[in-house]
Amino acid sequence: MAINLLFIRFQYMGKRLFVAILAVLMFCVAYAEEVAFQTNAPMIVNASEAFRVEFALNAKPDDRSFEAPSFEGFDVLAGPSVSHGSSVQIINGSMTKSYNYTISYVLQASSAGEHKIGVAKIGVDGKSYSTQVTPIEVRSGGDDSGAGDSPQSSQQQEQSLEQRAAGQIAKDDLMLRVNVSRSSVYKGEAVRATLKLYSRVNVIGSEGAKLPSFDGFWSQQLEAEQGPFRETLNGKVYDAYNLGEYILYPQQSGKLTIEPAKITIIAQMFVRNNRPRNSFFDNTHDIYNLRREVVSPAVTIDVKPFPAGAPQSFTGAVGKYTMEAHISLTEMAANSAANIDLKISGTGNIGFVQEPKITLPATFELYDVKSTEQIRTTAAGSSGFRRFEYPFIARAEGDYTIAPIEFTYFSPESRQYVTLTSESFAVTITPDKSSPASSPTVTTIVGKQDVRLLGSDIRFIKLTRPNLHAVVAPLVFSPLYFVIVVAMLLLSVVLYFVIGKRIRDSHNTALVKGRRANKVAVQRFRAAERYMREQNRHAFYEEMLRALWGYISDRFNIPVADLTKETIREELTRRGAVDQAKDIISIISLCEEAQYSPVESATMNEIYGRGIDIVSKIESVVKK
User: pTM of the prediction?
Assistant: First the structure.
């Protein structure tokens, strides 16, 4: 009995020790992400509107290290208020800890126009971090474009939902531009082109994209952060998205035009409805997904030709380069092989650099030049090196001099040609002692291929009749052969029916979308859960709305443009899911209210749980 009690006591102490060690590891674990400090603020506000500005940090700051920015042009109504939280994740034995620290202000603009939130600073572990300057466009009270609560006229009530949604987007609220780093270059000089979308509305997707054609250019796409980024264009503040970034090298001179790009943007609009408002929680706005095609203007680049008087060693290289040349042997026997190694390094159109010509003595035989390269392309252009190896064989003894190698490139900075010259190489060729005088060395080369051993590579041919016989019995017409043929025929029949069924199912768009509706919803719920852990309210509710609206659209094959709460109610009621229809509409309404209301009627955790539960219930009730 005493032994059992002692064992239980040790077991209990072991559990407590494990919990203590786990707690220490949780607090000692390093951050899984780099420190980021950024400003979150609305893009457009009214002069009389109070709005919130947040400075978000993903690490624990040093005490009293926060320096508030200059709020010139704004009145501080409240703040600073501080909120913070942390979370720990253990995935596959790997533990990560995240920390959220937010400082909030409530501001009000004193006048209309473009204002800026200045740079805020904060310290983390003795290192200072700063935010970027954030522009905010302040409109006068009358520039709300009908988004307020003023009564609608009878003419507005008669307009369709699409017309009212389209009326809320100004011509310059969605713009597509191809921005180039320079509009006048030399042939072969790098140009950076960025396809960028400027938006002042809530963009939820796109379709039918037609990228610009780069006729006359050699193009290479770069990896670039998509955004959005806060930018000011023509005096207005936009969310800018990078749709593509390219490095272009013009291959001909003259006026080269980058043809327009085209894309259809899906913007989510909140349109005031015509239904009476019976209570505070009644939603007076409907969501409409409006499609708007945007086209970028054509961009013309003036490509200047190279100046006259180019040296013979110029082959089209443009940029800034250096050259190194080495020879493997300066003294060797006749009929021996050696090589000259030439390395050209620099920045420019280095991928188009050709091997420079080399002049060897008459008794030297040059073979195929081998090249290797290491090139890295960034937004600044291409940089790296190209290495050329010139293999050769010296046939006659004596002292020789290999002339210097010349390489010429054009420098756009100085607008002139620059010639790089290597040193000359003195080579001594001694007699070939390995070849006896009685057996002369074969010196005739048929085709300049890889260097081969000469004089000893001839072998005798066997003249007697060969005695060949089969080692194993042939497979053709054997019993195994017929078994394999029958098996392949049966397999072909099975594959015919299986592939045919899959092709028919893939043509059924409604069936495919219905099958993947639950999977897509789960992926969006996971994204919403991540935002919930980060305490990012706006992103969480936006992702929950995308998950719920997208699930209904895919599950019941309803186009996104025709999707409304009334459509959801009618579709689920028709399928016998009356209670589920009320629940999902209620959850959507709560998300819409919480997304734009400073006061939450339900916690994010509660809404997240209800969203997952309602999708599961609909899946169990609606079988087809």
Answer: 0.51
